Amino acid sequence: MEKISTPLTEMLGMKYPMIIAPMFLVSNAEMLKAAIRSGITAAVPALNYRTDKDFREAIHEIRAEADGPMGVNLIVNKSNIRMMEQLKTCVELKVDFIITSLGSPRKVIELCKPAGIKVFCDVVDVHYAKICEDLGADAVIAVNKEAGGHAGPTPATELVPALVEACSIPVISAGGVGNGYQWKEKLELGAVGISMGSPFIATEEAGVSQDYKQACVDYGAEDIVMTTKLSGTPCTVINTPYMQDIGTQQNWLETFLNKNKKLKKFAKMLTAYKGMKMLEKAAMSATYKTVWCAGPSIEYVKSIRPIKAVVDEMVEQLTTSKVEVKE
């Protein structure tokens, strides 16, 4: 299939304007290699690796086995005590781009710019997008209301055009895409590409249990709920029987700790740690106690397939619908 040219494909040197979104515990080296070979790219959360040695080995493996752009997602707030170590590794090994989440990208941009590494920043509104642009970000990722994980409050139909109008840097849309027709819609809103995660959970390369993958096939958009149990910040999960049992809201003690100024930082770190452990157990083992993160775009997942099959089908839908990419 012919290349679809947008500022994103030109910036990263790839065939199609899609990033497989970084997903905690889901993204891995196999997914990144498959994405690159399919003509797109992907980013992996640095926190998916327990040690710097593991992180370095994964980057070297991807570089050795796939020829194309690869990215890393960094949590840039104080809860990530390993952020500077991870950032220095990214700069040293010269990854192609970094996606920043949940904090200020200032330090990332300062170190990446001289190294020629692109920095894309997750944003949910114009105010923060302008801050990122002023700091020197190469693009912003418009995290909209239909995104999986930590979704934004605004639908893509409002957020993307608002960011395109307000910013002079490219806008990438995140959320609400499960097929090529929706991909086309985001490009026609003015986005230069998309960041899509949830439909790729149900792929052969995803590093999670078969039960988790099958849940993305069996459940749909109406089964996605918000919970504050995992990180203290609203996060989308599949409303499994276990999720219904434990509830989606923090208990009184968790709420108290998060509101106490002196304890808030430590409470958030504890909540995030507990949430990460819950997700890890659910993602890696077959158990009814499932806390599976996903977005409403699993509505369009009908089977577990290779990443290339998902991408090829979406590109076919996109190209046959005669997309009109805005310059």
Topology of this structure?
Elements: H1 7-12, E1 18-20, H2 29-37, E2 41-45, H3 52-65, E3 71-75, H4 83-93, E4 97-101, H5 106-112, E5 118-123, H6 126-135, E6 139-143, H7 156-166, E7 171-174, H8 180-188, E8 193-196, H9 210-218, E9 224-227, E10 235-238, H10 241-246, H11 252-259, H12 264-284, H13 307-320
Parallel strand pairs: 1-2, 1-8, 2-3, 3-4, 4-5, 5-6, 6-7, 7-8
Antiparallel strand pairs: 9-10
Helix pairs in contact: 2-3, 3-4, 8-13, 11-12
GO molecular function: dioxygenase activity; nitronate monooxygenase activity
Organism: Flammeovirga pacifica
InterPro entries: Aldolase_TIM (IPR013785), NMO (IPR004136)
Question: What can you see in these coordinates?
Answer:
The protein contains 13 helices and 10 strands. It is of the alpha/beta class. It has 2 domains: 215 residues, Aldolase class I (TIM Barrel); 87 residues, no CATH class. The chain has an 8-stranded parallel beta barrel, surrounded by 6 helices. A two-stranded antiparallel sheet has the order 9-10. Helix 8 crosses helix 13 and helix 11 crosses helix 12. About 6% of the residues have low confidence. Keywords: Dioxygenase, Flavoprotein, FMN, Monooxygenase, Oxidoreductase.
